[in-house]
Every structure is written in C-alpha cells, then in structure tokens.
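W.,

You were right to be curious about this one. When I first looked at the sequence I had no strong expectations either way, so I just let the prediction run and decided to look at it fresh. Below is the sequence, 349 residues in total, followed by the output.
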Amino acid sequence: MWLLEADDVDPLRAGAGLYGAGGGGRVRTMAAILRHVLAGNGPVTVVDLDELDRGCHAVLIGDIGSGTISEERPMAGNELLRAARILAGHMDVRVDAVVSVAAAGSPLLMSVLAASQLGLPLVDADSTGRAFPSLEQTGCGLAGLPITPLALADTTGGELIINGLGPVGIEKAVRSIVPALGGWAAVAMRPHTVAVLSPALEPGTVSRALEAGRLCLDDDHPGLAARCGARELFRGNVIDVRRMALNSSTGVMATAVLEHSDMPGRTLRLEMQSEYLVALEDAEILACVPDLIGVLEFDSGEVVNAEDLCRGSWVRVLTLPCLPKWRTEAGLALAGPRAFGYAFDYVPT
C-alpha cells in the first residue's frame, strides 16, 4: 500500500504518456484537473491486488472518444463519478476499489481521479499494460470477461448504460453513440470480484508508469532501459509527416520520416494510427505493435503523442516490450500488426 499525491501527477502523466505509445488521449488537461483534485481531497491510496479481499468488487475506469475534443471541451469534473455510481446502482453492487482499464494515457489519470472522488483505493494493476484504441483490445477482452453492463457519462450530464453485448458489439455500439455525446465520454465497465478479475490484470503497472515518468523527466535513458526494458531505436529530426483520414474507428493513418541526428541520410519511418504502430529502417521492421513505440522530445524528455508529431521536432524513438499475453496467438490476433490492417506478422524486438 502506498499513497499517490498531487506532487506525483507530473511523473504519472509522463509515464502514462510513454505507455500510451503515442495514443491513449492527451493527458495535460487531465493532469491539471487531477492535480487540483488531489490537492483538495488528499492522496489516493494505491493497493496491491493481494491486499484486497477476493470477494470485493472493482470497477474498471477509462474513457472513449477523441483526445482532441477532450482537450477542447474539458471535463465538468463529475463524469467518472456519475458513470461509476449509475453502473453500481444498475447492478446493485457495492464497488470497493477502482482499476484502470489501461495504466496508460488518460485512462490511468482518470482512474486516479475516480478513486479520489469515490473515496476508494486504486488497484496497482491494469488490464492492458499499454494503450490500445478498441474496447475489445483489453485484458478483459483477451480473457473473455464481459465488460457490460457499461456506463457512459458525458460533459453535459448525459448518461447511458449499455448491456448484453459482446466485445465487438459493444465497440461498434459505443463508437456510434459517442458523437451524440459530444465526441468524448467517461466509461465505467462492469464491476467484477477481485477473484474473477485478477487473471485479466497485470499487477504493478500503476507504480511502473510512475517510475517510468520520473525517469523520462530526468532524461535517465539507462534507467528506462534497466527498469522498463526500453531501448532506443533512433534519434533525430522529423522531416516529413503525412496524414490520411480513414474511418470513424481507425481515425487517421499517418507516416512520419525522421533523419538521424548524427548520420545524415539515415532515416526511420514511423507508421501510426491512434498509436505508433510500426518503426522501419530501410524496410526492416525495428519494432511493431503490440510492443510499444514511444517518442520523446530530445531536450525535455516529454512524450510526444502521435497526433502531435510534426516536422521540425527533434526526438528520440524508443521501444518497450508489451505484456507477454499480447505475444500469444490470441493476443496477436486481437492486437498484432494484422489487427491494424498490416500484411505482416509480429516481429519480436
């Protein structure tokens, strides 16, 4: 058990960005809200899975929709609280703890906010280990655990409960509904007992993100390598970025080309959709999904989201290993390169 305080928000934001792999939403506005709430409410208690009674219920917290819209239309502040409460009331269960759908991107910060507002402990675990764009691309989806009933709450007071759909159906339903909710919504997923949920969770991922964020902000690349398995693929200047709109679920496909800072003529190509998906040099795959690809500003160590990457940026490109479950046959079918439309198989890094 440990306490997550307002002073931890900046490194947590940086770590959430790194494990967001270029996606997971924009976290700066969410971090400002969280810092303010923790300063007023006090720290959030973070607990290990084995500190919880096996029969207590934990609710999964996240969000869905456009990161850009969530920045343009900041949260009212009570969306997560409303989503969790209407879901608990609908199921007639007492929620005892909060779990992040993904200890990455905005869902990680939102789970801390939900724990603070609900007065509940946050579990030092998550179901995914990184950001993915789809509700079915979670540890629960991989383990076959139902995530419905699922509650959505928007910034204007709108609330909705969806029940009885499987992973693919719920993804399609939510994506069709989110535009009517203003393009973004807080999400609370079906509470499960700790005994049921534990096999779908990866322990220690909240503390891992916090540590990784501190290392990023300290520009401690040896520490990132030793503690998080990070490996630098490339460093240099972004010389070209091209984006092409696809569809409502895939969003934008983009390609960025970087020239090496020390070896002119040497280039790296980054392929991205909601997240960074593939890094190639001379047609050789250096890293690909489900492993993580992260981009850091060269001087500050700040994480650069895929939608913010632009020409003229000086950056480092890193890769980090995904959770082992995503390298299984089932995991790759759900979140490997072919799941994102690429015509090649996963290449371990």
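Here's what jumped out at me. The chain has a mean pLDDT of 92. And, maybe more interesting for your project: The chain has two domains: 2-205, 219-340.

Coffee later to discuss?

I.
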